[in-house]
Specification:
32% helix; binds uridine-diphosphate-N-acetylglucosamine; single chain; four-stranded mixed β-sheet; alpha/beta; 26% strand
Length: 419
Amino acid sequence: MDRFLVRGGMPLCGEVAASGSKNSALALMAAALLVQGTTRLRNLPRVRDLDAMLELLRALGAEADWDPADEHAAVIDASRLTRPEAPYDVVRKMRASFMVLGPLVARCGVARVSEPGGCAIGVRPVDQHLKGLEAMGAKVSLDHGVVEASAPRLRGGRVAFDMATVNGTQNVMMAASLADGETVIENAAREPEVVELANALCRMGADVRGAGSDRVVVRGGGSLRGVEHRVSGDRIETGTLLIAGVVTGGDVTVTGVDPSHLEAVLDKLRETGADLETRPDAVRARAAERLAGVNVVTAPWPGFPTDMQAQLMAALCTASSSSVISETVFENRFMHVPELQRMGADISVEGRAAHVRGVERLAGAPVMATDLRASAGLVLAGLAAEGETTVNRVYHIDRGYERIEEKLRSLGADIRRER
Ligand code: UD1
């Protein structure tokens, strides 16, 4: 198992390119299942979650692989889907694989996908995905941990989500693109990844309107055609790299990203006293002084993303004043707290709120990554700490960040991977 050795204290400075959005890519790969033809996705991050998704698509019978001519592109031909079943082993490791359910029922009339079950950051049920497919006429049953959905032909329906679910909205949007008639999604998630998927579906020939608002209308029915799509820059990776700059008192510019995808994060960083500048496709963040504490509440778009909570907390550990971080999206997303405490952070958790009292500095220590974004937070803490931090179990980080240690090193960080 790999680990990172981080020696903290170096201000990170320079320019680095964002990789493509992992979460957008996962949804787009699932969308390729809707097409009897070839979809080519470009600007993909080379991360383990995408390897896993390609493997799943192959298991379903599609031809799916990285493009030998471009290491950041993949070609997916879903003309023939021979086995509409996603086994537990795959779904357990990557919940996003549940997004194949909608496209598979729409294409094959029946699909079986294992129920994802719990994961490190909480229970994360899929009831809303299922409610959406049922509203389109699918018969859904659960047998020995496997969800089976069937419908000889899906038809449009009205789906009112109980909460804004990103992958749930995407799952239903995809299925609705092949369903007969009109589907209306109320309380839809509004994240940029939902909008990007909707745009790609439209280019495939679907009629999807309202994405980015809480009411999405899909008129389905026709068949879809393969497209080439360039995935937009990863807003979470960008936010992580920007925090690496400001927490070390450095000056970092991330290119290849749409700053409007990061508004809530940039607003919060400004509130800490960091200096932010945006260009149409880049963001620069620097901080000459110790950051100030801020209060933050995670929320669905356009709120502060839960996927940036651990990284911001790492930065606030050494702020000049106190912060309160409230996590409202997932119920168990403070697993980085005990690890940060081992580095000298002064944090107490009460229910869904973490009180962070800034300390002068963190001290390097061996820590353990527990999930993707928590691991990123620990790396950031290590960059700011005095002495050496060993981040164990970095396979979590490899799921969603492409060669993060190389990107950080190019900015002047002292970080290396030990196998
Ligand atoms: C996506 C992102 C993830 C991010 C999350 C919230 C991908 C691959 N992953 O996950 O990185 O942290 O959005 O921005 O895009 N819920 C239910 N029932 C459901 C579905 C969701 O109760 O059927 C709950 C979840 O437990 C959670 C909340 O709704 O409390 C939001 O989760 P959701 O938006 O669905 O997260 P994902 O789409 O799985």
